[in-house]
Amino acid sequence: MRQRLIVSVLLAVTAAVGSPSVAGASDPPVGQDQQPRQVGPSADELDRQEQMFSVFDPFYRKISKHPDGDGFAQAQVSEGVRSLILYWRGTIPKQVREFAANSVFPVELKPAKYSEADLGRLARSIKTRWNPHWGSYAGLSPEIGLSSFAVDWTPKAGVDPKGVARVLRQSVPGLGDSVRLHAAPALERTADDWRWNDSSPWNSGGGLALGDGGPDKTTCTLGPALRVNGAERFLTAGHCGAHDWVDGTGVAIGSTTFVSSLHDYQFVAANASGKVFVGAWNNYDGPTRNIEYLGGNAIGSWVCNEGANSGEHCSLQVYSSTVDTNGWTLWKASNPFSQSQVVNVGGDSGAPIISKGEVEATARGLNLGYTPSRGESCAGVPMRRSVSKCGSDVVYLSLSQIINHHPGATLIEY
């Protein structure tokens, strides 16, 4: 296992260069009965995961460019990172069978009803045929292994789901006879509350800015919120600097009260809602999820990065972890099936790392930056402010580790 990861690409979009500092601030001591928990896989599991994906990733990139790759459905790491399960729609190509037979780790091949490409085509096709009078279409939710999926939506009052399903069956080629509609996760939608125009109580994933809040100012992201000895404190990245923060319209959010120079996070005093923004950075409906759980981290788990500048990036899988020079674990996540996809940009520093359930969110970490070797071009990447720093992975601190470091700290939940 690598002993050190240097995250040299800092994701604060700053107007001035300087080290964050707070006069008189010092790292509060860890309570004797508050030793940080060990979260995640063992060293052996990390080694196996590293070996597994070093072999599978190049193969996937190769097969995804070949016509045979259209049948690929999903990959799943077994418990303990002992084997890899590949789900495939249709006849399994020879090169895939050879990959499984000759792999240095066990590979199990399983059938799938739909491929990844199938669902992409179906989702786009449904979008073109969706009637807004039915309600809001949110996409598709496949089961593990892609044996089935549901059409996510938020229905309008009085709309008959059976009638919607019947129209979709008749109008969307390849959808099949069994169309399952699934009420989309409960989202709070308000015309004025979005990542850059929120109000108290503030949501995680919202924008932090200086001055009048314009896009030419320093920007970072409100992370998860904690209650520390009774006081409400948002987390964000320490390298964002200690400031009096405002939102994108210049409305005051709160001020930095503490900076950990060792571990690169800070506290911002502000009233917290216990919710997190989801969706695109410019989604003016302001959808949120309720934060209901504090989660650990493990190799192979899936997370979302909720950055204020570039919005939501999900389908990120934790692919590695390392211990920094101060003894804290850093976790790394990326899109395993599109290794060069930009999932993290300047201004996303401090973003909450979450996983999403049916109607809730689990808070797992705090975005600090991206691996320098995984820097990518920012050309064409949707974001509020154009920046030059973009990466294809997310490097983040475990939220549990931060909480364990501060006796009396708890996650603010909705």
Structural class call reads: alpha+beta
Instruction: State the low-pLDDT regions, or none.
Output: 1-41, 185-193
Which percent band covers the strand fraction? 25-35%
Whole-Å distance between the termini? Answer: 38 Å
Largest sheet: 6 strands, antiparallel, barrel
Number of DSSP-assigned strands: 27
- Overall average pLDDT: 79
- Examine the coordinates and then state which fold CATH places here, giving the name of the CATH topology of the largest domain: Thrombin, subunit H
CATH hierarchy, class of the largest domain: Mainly Beta
CATH architecture of the largest domain: Beta Barrel
The shape, in one word, is globular
**What percent of residues adopt helix (DSSP H or I)?**
10-25%
Question: Helix count?
Answer: 5
Q: What is the rounded Rg?
A: 22 Å
The order of strands across the largest sheet is 18-19-20-26-23-22
CATH superfamily of the largest domain: Trypsin-like serine proteases
Number of domains: 3
Keywords: Signal
Region (Disordered): 20-44
Signal peptide: 1-25
Protein name: Peptidase S1 domain-containing protein
